[in-house]
Fold:
Amino acid sequence: MFGRLAVTLATSLTILTAPATAATTAATTAATTAVNVAHRGASAHAPENTIPALELAADHGADVFEFDVQETKDHKLVLMHDTTLARTTNAERVLPGLSPWRVGDLTLAQIRKVDAGAWFSDEFAGTRVPTLGEALEAMSDSGLGLLLEVKAPRLYPGIEKRIAAELRHHPEWASQERLVVQSFDWDSMRTFHELLPGVPIALLGRPSTGQLPGVAKFADQVNPHYTDLTAAYVRRAHALGLQVLTYTVDSPSAMRHVLGYGVDGIVTNRPDVLRSVLDG
Structure:
């Protein structure tokens, strides 16, 4: 998945078996091949989960962009991290009386009215909340992979089926080389795997080492927070054929630290910084 991840995994496994002198060389190779994932797009430089942030991901050296998908009241799929629009839009001013502006309580037409960029900076004023289809279309020729997070799926019964249907409309994305779907809700990911078994699945969080063999029966990745990782855990996941991406890592020192564990990729708000670390 994501193409380069297979190379990374092979390199990581080489580290486990190589002599100490060779391990140093292998570790350097692993660092340069780890996948650079732009969290909600290049979200340190543009408003998260918007087309400008996704487009900047490529300019800032990302291999993959990540975004969050939720569902409106009229069952349209939109990009939004929080379950309300309050933090990242001007919904309070534009949609008075609809507090707390939950995504699932608003129609797509209502969400179209809000500004999703001005909160970040004047440069992005007028930016709108994109639909999943719009984001897929905008990034289809980018050459980047996609890590798609299904956000709070229990709030939106059937969202897995609707996301799968949208992906079928964009077959250039429904590929194990270009797309991974993830969620903190592992039952949701079991459901998604049944709908699109050819699309790799990732579990956000940290399954215990005892849970990993069961997880490996339907998932392809485990993606814990970087503070929950150890080198031993990464080795155990790799031994079961699971890849490991970790989030959300923004400092160069923390990036180098987790690269030393042999992770297959890093999710970051600053793909430009990670690119410098990987290339340096």
Observations:
- The chain has twelve helices and nine strands.
- The first helix runs from residue 4 to 17.
- The two ends are 25 Å apart (CA to CA).
- The chain has a mean pLDDT of 91.
